[in-house]
Amino acid sequence: MSALTGILFAALIVYGGGWYAGQWTGNFSLLLLILTVVTGLYWLAERFHFAPAREKAAQALEVADLKRRESLAAQGIARVDGDIIAAKEEVLRQPWWMDWTAGLFPVIVIVFVLRSFLFEPFKIPSGSMVPTLLVGDLILVNKFHYGIRLPVINKKIISNHDVQRGDVMVFRYPEDPRMDFIKRVVGLPGDEVSYRNQHLYLNGKLVDVKAVDAYYDEDSMQMRSRYEEQLGDKPHKLLVDMNRQQFFRPDRKDGPFPFQDQCTYNGEGLTCKVPAGHYFMLGDNRDNSRDSRFWGFVPDENIVGKAFMVWMNFSNPKRVGFFD
């Protein structure tokens, strides 16, 4: 078992090292599931086989020592050298390979349950959600807000709240489901979403925005106008250059995105009819976000959860708090 455990640890190190070095994209949910299953098997083996075997060996050692002492006493020898306490402790001691597998199982299973069904931490890697979220923000995502999903396969088994316009949602990137993206929900199934001349229209109506203040954008290192927009119950801030002319075209790497025929592109922008079971996503940093305008809709099965809190930013601890 020690050799097998060593091989498993070596495989884990190689997998983690290649992931860290960028040789391949890892799947933490799958890795955590495998670790839970493997350590769980070790825990069961320890509880029902190895631990009882060690206890039985320790009892046999006690019985052998008692018989030895009785035999010596029958010969008139009262004082017997040797103490089996240290030997018994050595027999009962859990081997290293069991300590680093079965011993970690309770911790790993707690992390697995919390991360799979309750809350999952993420780190913001880009500025597409500025000013709501900054690069380096460590956020929490509510995994059960939209319903309970099975880990790894992400299949919903229990429904909860419906997705609402204005939600900040984490989802599996449609071009590469191994990656997680975060954007704001703009269009729900059945909505007509238009983004023309730097303005957003929902079902033919202009979504009003109002300028609120100037904002220093660290990515571009310049002052930009910050606006307020309201898609759902609460307003949120966004960055957009109203004087900038942008041209949009589908540029999904693997070809036309699903339901691309529901979108029309022209010199002013684009208009899309959101298909059933899908959502249209935009970044709050409208001029610096690669989102549904480029790669299409997010299917319901790609939903990970609703982002709701910055729990830490080591460069700026004042960022800690809830957001809309």
TrEMBL record:
Highest rank taxon of the organism: Bacteria
Topology of this chain in the membrane: Single-pass type II membrane protein
Cross-referenced PROSITE patterns, in alphabetical order? SPASE_I_1, SPASE_I_2, SPASE_I_3
Q: Which residues form the Peptidase S26 domain?
A: 98-311
The keyword DNA repair appears for this protein: no
Bilayer-crossing residues are 28-45, 97-118
Name the gene for this chain: lepB
Annotated localization: Membrane
Q: What is its main location?
A: membrane
Q: What class of enzyme is it?
A: hydrolase
Q: What is its EC number?
A: 3.4.21.89
Q: Is Cell wall biogenesis/degradation given among the entry's keywords?
A: no
This entry's Gene Ontology molecular function terms read: signal peptidase activity
Give the family from UniProt: Belongs to the peptidase S26 family.
Q: What NCBIfam families does the record tag this protein with?
A: sigpep_I_bact (TIGR02227)
Task: Could you list this entry's UniProt keywords, alphabetically sorted.
Answer: Hydrolase, Membrane, Protease, Transmembrane, Transmembrane helix
Catalysed reactions, semicolon-separated = Cleavage of hydrophobic, N-terminal signal or leader sequences from secreted and periplasmic proteins
Q: What is this protein's record name? A: Signal peptidase I
What organism does the record attribute this protein to? Roseateles subflavus
